[in-house]
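Agenda item 2: S-adenosylmethionine complex prediction
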Amino acid sequence: MTERGADIHRAFHDVERVPSSRPAVEFLRAAETVPAIAAYRSRLRAHLAPAAGETVLDVGCGVGTHAAAIAAERAAAGADGPVVGVDRPRMIEQAGATHGDAVRWLPGAGEALPLDDDSVDAVYAERVLMYVDDPVDVISEIARVRRPGGRVALFELDYASMVLGGDAKIADEVLEVVCGTVGQDRMGRTLGPLLTDAGVLVVDQTPYAMTIPPPVWAQAVRGPVEDAVADGRLDRERVDAWFAELGAPGAYPGSVTGVLVCGT
Ligand SMILES: C[S@@+](CC[C@H](N)C(=O)[O-])C[C@H]1O[C@@H](n2cnc3c(N)ncnc32)[C@H](O)[C@@H]1O
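Presented output:
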């Protein structure tokens, strides 16, 4: 069972303000096994398609797995060029320790990117905007650093689209709790209009339904639920009965839709 305080969403809002970054780091490593993540990333990379010498930026790069993979892919294809990852200092420290200097790791915030205007050819962010106070601030920074006509790819979950099995009433209550913890719970469907407002031409919006494997489920859903039980928003007995129902053979595993939006 996830301990109270290991709520992953709180860590992603600001990893500097939680007691330990370890649950967030472990969560990101476990999330790498979700098949839909590999699927949207392959499409995202095809859209960014950086030529040799072009600069790629990952906003909210987390532990750096994808940015490092892009750097390696470019090197293998003879299309080397700068890859930059920006995230909060704790994440950047972890990324650098794990992946070394094939990527330029920069501590910073999406709301104030530590990069010059028009300095990036291809920029992406994955599962970041749903955690920021105002996604417009980050999108306008992305538009500022992107050179005119540069490629943009954003992928965000739409937590309000989560499908939960078991008793419908408690499932709805849990959904409300999880959405409240995430913050921007309709981020996927909001990306296209926000990018358009920032002057980016949206060329594609593709939804991905993601099933939620047990280790990811334990933190994405169970963490906020345990917090809600502790402060009286959810009832322990009903929650336990619901979890038992979800553990039964044939129960629906849970899913959420994310949206990849590509622009130029
Ligand atoms: C769910 S994780 C995703 C990490 C990475 N993009 C991936 O796909 O594995 C969200 C990341 O966004 C970062 N983040 C949240 N708010 C941020 C902000 N305002 N500026 C920069 N990074 C932020 C978190 O620190 C965390 O690493």
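Discussion summary: The CA atoms of residues 113 and 141 lie 6 Å apart.
Owner for follow-up: CH.
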